[in-house]
Amino acid sequence: MKAEYINPFITSIISVFDTMLGCELKREAPFVKDSHQPAHEVSGVIGLSGKARGTVVFSLGREAALSATEAMLDERPTEINSDVTDAVGELTNIIAGGAKAQLEHFAMGLSLPNVVTGKGHVIEFPKDAAPICIPFGSEWGPVVLEVGLIEQHAAVPQS
């Protein structure tokens, strides 16, 4: 996967955490992911379609999910509940939307975000997409961005 596909998502997540949540993310070494299990127990998932298609996963540990929700709602939930899933869904949408603006040449469409919770949940990526996992450290704990995109090639007309 090309860096030009991933960098807009990295820029967007760092910007959203900084400006919207007041939390600095420290990027760690990216790696190619070899399993379908997200690193943490709360994951926002968005599908992308257009000239490139795939999946973006925004995965947070419990503490990071609760703290992000608190930053958005000015009230700290005591558990992973509907407020947390709504907040993570909204953050996922904002992050993907910010990246989409930088990827206009792919004419991408975004699905509505889904939020999956619980340890051991599984997220499927398109068959040919090897997802890149970009971990971040923060004062709230770990946050991970997973991007699995493949460029769609236009069919060549038969003569």
3D structure, described in words:
With 159 residues, the chain is of the alpha+beta class. It has a single domain, classed as Chemotaxis protein chec. It is 32% helix and 26% strand. It has helices at 3-20, 62-73, 82-102, and strands spanning 26-27, 31-32, 42-49, 52-60, 109-110, 114-117, 132-137, 143-151. Strands 1, 2, 3, 4, 5, 6, 7 and 8 form an eight-stranded antiparallel β-sheet that branches. The longest helix is centred in the middle third of the chain and has 21 residues, at 82-102. The mean pLDDT is 86.
Set down the secondary structure blueprint:
Blueprint: H1 3-20, E1 26-27, E2 31-32, E3 42-49, E4 52-60, H2 62-73, H3 82-102, E5 109-110, E6 114-117, E7 132-137, E8 143-151
Antiparallel strand pairs: 1-7, 2-7, 3-4, 3-5, 3-6, 4-8, 7-8
Summarize the structure.
This protein is an alpha+beta fold. It has one domain (3-150): Chemotaxis protein chec (3-Layer(aba) Sandwich). The protein has three helices and eight strands, in the order αββββααββββ.
Mean pLDDT, all residues: 86
| N-end to C-end Cα span | 32 Å
Strand residues, percent: 25-35%
Rg of Cα set:
16 Å
The beta-strand count equals 8
Order of helices and strands: HEEEEHHEEEE
Give the class from helix and strand content and strand pairing. Answer: alpha+beta
Low-confidence runs of at least 5 consecutive residues: none
Shape: globular
CATH architecture: 3-Layer(aba) Sandwich
Assign a percent range to the helix content. 25-40%
Estimate nothing, just give the exact number of structural domains: 1
Query: What is the CATH H-level superfamily?
Result: CheC-like
CATH topology-level name? Chemotaxis protein chec
